[in-house]
Specification:
Chain A: One of its GO terms (molecular function) is phosphorelay response regulator activity. The complex is a heterodimer of chains A (248) and B (575). Chain A is of the alpha+beta class and 248 residues long. Chain A is built from 7 helices and 16 strands. Chain A folds into 2 domains: 2-125, Response regulator (Rossmann fold, 3-Layer(aba) Sandwich), CATH 3.40.50.2300; 160-243, LytTr DNA-binding domain (OB fold (Dihydrolipoamide Acetyltransferase, E2P)). Classes of the chains: A alpha+beta (248), B alpha+beta (575).
Chain lengths: 248, 575
């Protein structure tokens, strides 16, 4: 599991310092602090940013909103963001709200509020509500990563690293080359959100990353995966043989 | 000389044509009245008869015509109607029309002899003497009972006249003589004069002066007894001509003069009559003028009246509009006055708020100042333990001041509606967690046992920031009014389908009923400071109430003096 990368756009050093302190305490990785619109764009496009915290007012101008608008318009690396503001001025909020999805953090903020705002931003951005806030689930699936709530903070796992997933009731065991861990997510949801060109269901309880398959032994109903992991192939799901590119 | 005589005769003949005598016609009227009663149902005939008797010829003509139009079957009535019409035309000197009407009458008509008489008279007047003679001669053969309705002497006279006109003096003489005799019996002076005149003319015409002159003289003598100027004048003229012919010019002159006198009188009479006529015409004209003047006046009056009416209408309309606008103005004024009162109240409240807030802030800053002085003193003395206590005290003071300022800011934003406000679905658990986070050190300080049993599944609909402000204030109060080693609990309860109750319960000093009621009162903005140490401006609670209201929630307090307080915020479960 990796740390989540956060970009801070904030022109007041004391504010950004406080933010950095809280984020680092909670195992977030701060990739940089931008103090202007230009710097922010530069940092945003040259780093693998997962979440951006944007102060609406930069040097007295609502450049934060302009930044949010810019990254929302360019479709490619659009990422979740949180607005940081010291007042609930209606006009500013109405303008900021145009950049959907909209999450915000009011100054002064405490640790819990920061973490809550970040989680909300991820939930809203990937349109998977009531995940981190509920007790039933703890994982949000984006195109690249799984965002998993671990304690107070968020972690991410690169989806292509997953070898297979073993479902156990409402838990899912995720097995990557380096580690194994359990997430809370329903099977239907994970099946819906994962790229089905890459992941295939081979058994009632197994979802396999087809790129990690080394050998399939239909006679034994067995799939050998990289890292010498084994998954079961049940009769119901033998159709995957047709889908997988094999040498002939 | 002869010419003059002829003129005289012509003049006389015109006058000596006698019409119906009063008495005779009355007997005829009685007859037709009987007839009219007989046909009483026939209104036209009845009214025609009545008009005939009244000698209203025009109306008679109209009604008899109507009668003829309505029914032509009754020969008897038709004859009567034709007779009325003929007679009326005759009286109006429309001789041809009259003749036509008379010709339409059937010979069976009861009074056909009257028709003949009339026809004879018409013929005589038209100069058809022979025709007239034939009519009149028929009449002479009638029995005496018929003469009850017409004068025999008139018939005879007329016959005589006809012959006279035809210069058949021999035939004329017996008729005229007979007529004169009958006339003398009747003693009708005027007619006798005419008769005398006619017979005198008869003789005179034949140059039988000896016979003529006595008649002229008789006529002249008789004329003196009448008041009729015409006959006086004629007899006098005749006498003058007679005397002239006898070459007795002196007498002739006397008669001439008399003739002139009567003529003048007649002329005078005529002149008077003409003058009267003129005057009448003048009067009529004057009247006409007056009438037209009155008419114009009337028109002017009508115009004036219409003008007045319309202007009154317009004025009324204007009045209505004015009243309407006046009322509107009064209404607006009332609203303005009400608004002004409201504004005055608000302004007073604001002023009060200002004074209390600034007083509070001043005390806080003052406390900080004194504390800082102490801090510096102790720093010099390196009395670290005291320093720690002082710093904690300072931070508490600053916290209080910050909360006050925060509330003030939100109050201002709420009043001016400048604040962002969006009701969304919120999980109470996280909100409570985030708010409590800031108060944990404070509670630790007072050694307050805190417990939150709010569930992650507790969902409410509210605006996040305002909910946080509400919670902050309630928690702040709970801590403020709790004794050391007290306890604070936050939990939810379901008492209403639509609402989720969030309860902040403390084991603090509580409050009495009056305070409780006062706090919940709508207008109670600031509670008076009773206890310098623990009672604030009341702004916090007021802000809470306003924000709960804005979130469409409800607020209530349960408290017991000395045992603690429950602040209950009811929030909507569904939007």
């Amino acid at each position: 599991m990796d740390k989540v990368n956060v970009l801070i756009i904030e022109d007041t050093p004391s504010e950004s310092d406080a933010l950095i302190k809280v984020l680092q305490t909670n195992n977030y990785n701060v990739v940089g602090v931008a103090t202007s619109f230009k710097e922010a764009l530069e940092l945003f496009y040259h780093n693998a940013v997962d979440i951006t915290i944007i102060d609406i007012f930069l040097n007295g101008n609502p450049d934060g909103i302009s930044f949010a608008e810019t990254i929302s318009v360019s479709p490619n690396p659009s990422k979740p963001f949180v607005f940081l503001t010291s007042s609930t001025d209606r006009q500013i909020f109405e303008r900021a709200k145009v950049t959907q999805p909209f999450s915000y953090l009011m100054k002064p903020f405490n640790e819990l509020e920061i973490l809550y705002a970040l989680e909300m931003a991820v939930e809203k951005f990937y349109a998977q509500p009531n995940v981190f806030l509920s007790e039933e689930e703890d994982t949000i699936i984006s195109a690249e990563y799984l965002f998993i709530k671990k304690g107070k903070s968020l972690k991410k796992v690169l989806i292509t690293d997953i070898i297979y997933i073993e479902v156990e009731e409402k838990y899912c065991n995720i097995i990557t080359e380096k580690e194994k861990f359990v997430i809370l997510i329903s099977l239907t949801k994970i099946l819906k959100l994962l790229d089905d060109a890459m992941f295939c269901r081979t058994h009632r309880n197994y979802i396999v990353n087809t790129e990690k398959i080394i050998e399939i032994i239909p006679a034994d109903n067995l799939i050998i995966l990289s890292g010498n992991y084994k998954a079961t192939l049940s009769d119901t799901y033998k159709d995957i043989l047709k889908k997988i590119r094999t040498l002939k | 000389m002869i010419k003059i005589k002829w003129l005289l005769i012509l003049m006389f003949s015109g006058y000596s044509l006698f019409s119906q005598d009063q008495f005779k016609s009355e007997s005829f009227h009685l007859e037709i009245k009987k007839k009219a009663y007989e046909y009483k149902n026939n209104t036209f005939f009845y009214s025609a008869t009545l008009y005939f008797i009244e000698k209203n010829w025009d109306s008679t003509l109209v009604h008899s015509m109507k009668q003829l139009n309505v029914s032509k079957k009754n020969r008897d009535l038709a004859d009567y109607s034709h007779y009325y019409r003929g007679y009326s035309f005759d009286q109006k000197k429309l001789l041809k029309e009259a003749q036509k009407e008379f010709d339409l009458i059937s010979p069976e008509f009861d009074f056909y002899f009257l028709v003949k008489k009339c026809l004879g008279e018409i013929a005589l007047e038209q100069g058809q003497f022979k025709k007239a003679i034939s009519y009149f001669e028929e009449l002479t053969k009638l029995s005496d009972k018929h003469y009850f309705y017409l004068k025999k002497r008139n018939v005879l006279h007329n016959l005589g006249l006809c012959h006279l006109h035809l210069n058949q003096f021999k035939e004329a003489e017996p008729y005229l003589v007979k007529s004169v005799r009958l006339q003398e019996q009747q003693k009708d002076t005027l007619e006798t004069i005419w008769a005398y005149g006619d017979i005198a003319n008869l003789y005179y015409e034949q140059y039988k002066d000896d016979l003529a002159i006595p008649y002229f003289e008789k006529a002249y003598q008789l004329s003196k007894r009448t008041k009729d100027y015409k006959s006086k004048q004629n007899t006098a003229l005749n006498m003058a001509i007679v005397e002239e012919n006898r070459k007795d010019f002196k007498k002739a002159l006397v008669y001439r003069k008399e003739y002139e006198k009567w003529k003048d009188s007649l002329n005078d009479q005529n002149k008077i009559w003409e003058v009267a006529q003129l005057e009448k015409q003048f009067a009529v004209k004057e009247k006409q003028k007056e009438v037209s003047l009155l008419q114009t006046e009337n028109k002017a009056k009508i115009v004036e009246r219409n003008g007045l009416f319309y202007s009154a209408l317009i004025l009324l309309f204007l009045l209505g509009t004015t009243i309407y606008f006046y009322k509107e103005k009064i209404k607006t004024n009332k609203i303005i006055v009400a608004q002004k009162e409201g504004l005055d109240d608000l302004n007073a409240t604001k002023d009060k708020l200002f004074s209390i807030v600034s007083h509070d802030l001043r005390s806080s800053v003052n406390a900080l100042k004194t504390s800082n002085t102490k801090l510096l003193d102790n720093l010099e003395a390196k009395n670290l333990e005291v320093l720690d206590g002082l710093l904690h005290n300072n931070s508490a003071i600053v916290n209080g001041a910050y909360n006050l300022l925060d509330n003030l800011l939100h109050w201002a934003l709420l009043q001016t509606k400048q604040s962002y406000f969006e009701i969304t679905s919120l999980r109470l658990f996280f909100i409570v967690e985030q708010v409590i986070y800031n108060y944990k050190p404070l509670m630790l300080d007072k050694n307050i046992a805190f417990e939150s049993t709010v569930l992650k599944s507790d969902l409410v609909f509210a605006d996040q920031e305002s909910l946080k402000i509400i919670l902050r204030n309630l928690l702040d109060n709970a801590i403020k009014f709790s004794e050391v080693n007290g306890s604070i609990k936050i939990y939810t309860q379901q008492t209403d389908e639509a609402y989720c109750d969030l309860v902040i319960e403390d084991s603090g000093i509580g409050m009495n009923e009056t305070t409780r009621a006062g706090l919940l009162k709508e207008s109670e903005l600031l509670s008076k400071k009773e206890n310098e140490n623990s009672i604030g401006t009341g702004l916090g609670l007021q802000l809470c109430k306003s924000m709960i209201q804005k979130n469409k929630g409800k607020f209530s307090i349960e408290s017991e003096l000395g045992k603690g307080t429950k602040m209950i915020v009811s929030l909507l479960k569904k939007a």
